[in-house]
Amino acid sequence: MNIVFIASESVPFVKTGGLADVIGSLPEALQAEGHRVQVFLPKYKSIPSHFQEQMHTVVKDEIKLGWRNQYCGVEALRHAGINYYFIDNLYYFGREGVYGYSDDIDEAERFIFFCKAILEMMPKLIMEPDVIHVHDWQTALIPLLIRNHYGNQPYYEKVKTVFTIHNLKYQGIFSNELVGDIIELPHDWFHAGGIEYYGKVNLLKGGIAYADAITTVSPTYAEEIQTPFFGEGLDGLLRTRKDQLSGIINGLSLLEYDTTTDPYLYKRYYDQEGKAINKKAVQEQLYLPVTDAPMITIISRLVEQKGLDLVIHVLDELLQEDIQFVVLGTGEHKYEHTLNEFAKRYPEKFHLHRTYNEELSRNLYAGSDFLLMPSLFEPCGLSQLIALRYGTIPIVRETGGLNDTILSFNEELNSGNGFTFKNYNAHDLLFTIRRALLFYHDKVKWAQIHTNARSSSVGWAKSATMYDELYQELVGKIKE
Ligand code: ADP
């Protein structure tokens, strides 16, 4: 099948979170299933110059956006067997950063332009796609635009759309002035069954309402978002579309995340001994004492979703143990500030690195003993998968994709690849960390947990087959 991916970020060009990892690795896995996948992205200023230099313009035109006409260039680049098309417009994407740099209408306009430009340009670039697969609110308007504006063009007549929700919390909610002006949607399309949301425009809602199939990134999250607690105000709509909704767990690129080849690591490794060398190097880099104390790490955006309130609640108590605790991440000021206070009070035990740093993140996955993810909710989570692959034992809360990928260690059966707890409760977290620390000091069990973690399947194979089956079902082809 001819499949088009449309997203706002992708490794190796631009990354702010897990979405970029997925867009950077799923197309290759689908190509291995026999499909042809092409990817559209914005041409951000922050894309590394060596990639920008390889791009060449394939078409240019003007895109009508309400009363404005905006320049649109499409630049192409082939990377790792995939064709990428970058939508070029300096006004919208030639700025610093990726998201949210000014008022909300401006942010909306950037991505509405992106969606419209792609639908205008695609017929000039590639053969009719069988499936257009869009991701998160930035591209969620596409299924609606196909229904409303483009569906009667022969090129788009047969196309099926898939919308994947990577995080329901971010919905792209904007003022309703957009509807007539920038989206140019007839007024009768603005209703509660579509993109209308309490008088405003909710772009993500359009994806849920109009895509032929909706997926999210784990089976547990697919269930959770149909309940009020996780539904972010859209659980009702999701329940009405539950027959079109499924959960497919994310995978990792096994080539990208490989401890025997990872170019960022101090020391590439196969086993525990190699890990110890990386741990020492990380301790030295972060000015922590070089000891055998278990190292617990968080690598994450510092936002409520990631369970930081639980961590902060028990951190004093936890830091009485013989441990080292490292946090790599940026985010909300209140978390950065509080964690920074801990770093000042416990300089020998607690380190906060307030940056986004790929190299340090890889070295932390390699050098740490535990990765902590006590998330309030977690659509899939990639960090725990990277941790498994790097032999770092996840301690997680049983929610979303964490629930689907991490099984708590059972000392009777010797099963399980991490440590888990159920309730969003700080003392359950503390208890679970203490339980994990007991096993750290039990050589035999610790080796067993490692074996279980490193043999967990974290690649795309199974999930790529599930996407393949979904696409086949949508376009009405039954696989042999
Ligand atoms: P989310 O997409 O909600 O941010 P995921 O666990 O799905 O969370 O993906 C996060 C990705 O971003 C992982 O690849 C993780 O290693 C990476 N990451 C998060 N924070 C940082 C950071 N400060 N520096 C480097 N990488 C980070």
Describe the structure.
With 480 residues, the chain is α/β, with parallel strands linked by helices. It is built from 20 helices and 18 strands. The chain has helices spanning 18-23, 26-32, 49-54, 90-93, 104-125, 141-150, 154-157, 177-181, 203-210, 219-224, 235-240, 272-285, 308-318, 333-345, 358-367, 383-389, 400-405, 426-440, 443-454, 461-475; strands at residues 2-6, 36-42, 56-65, 68-79, 82-88, 131-135, 160-165, 173-174, 196-197, 200-202, 213-216, 245-247, 295-299, 324-328, 350-353, 370-373, 393-397, 419-421. It has a nine-stranded mixed β-sheet with strand order 3-4-5-2-1-6-7-11-12, sandwiched between helices. The chain has a six-stranded parallel β-sheet with strand order 15-14-13-16-17-18, sandwiched between helices. A three-stranded antiparallel β-sheet has the order 8-10-9. The two termini are 15 Å apart. Adenosine-5'-diphosphate is lined by residues 17-18, 21, 299-301, 328-330, 356-358, 361, 380-383, 386.
